[in-house]
Amino acid sequence: MIPLPQVSQVAQTIQLALAPVFLLAGIGAFLNVCVSRLARIIDRARAVEEWVLSTRGKEHDRMVSEIRVLDRRMSVVNGAIFLSVASACAVCLVVILLFAGNLFNAHLGTPVAILFSLAMVLQAAAFATFIQEIRLASRTIHIRNEVLYHKVEEEEAA
Prior knowledge:
This protein is an all-alpha fold. The protein has 5 helices and no strands. The protein has helices at residues 7-54, 57-103, 109-140, 145-148, 154-157.
């Protein structure tokens, strides 16, 4: 028969699990940012898709180029989301092992440390992937020179 843990043991385990739970909250906030960016990228891609089909010449080429970058950005953000979710799963396993170790009086320090380290590596990779997406966005989002330096014809001004 499994000896039941004392309330003080459970309270101590809850205290130990508090830091990983806060980490889960942070990962959740990061996922919210990633999903919001993904939604905006998808909305832009849908608009550009329509323009690709209705434009010709240089404007068509510009739209095709933009939609390719948007497709790449979607893939990169999806990668960041995947890595963050994997990190969150590893953190959940840490919390589960903390309670299992307490409940069954098992020595699970090594698996807990390995899983927590894995969670940190996965989250660091998610942040690095997110930086890649931000760099992609900042390199491709700019105002064209013909718009920046557009001058109204004298006839139109009159």
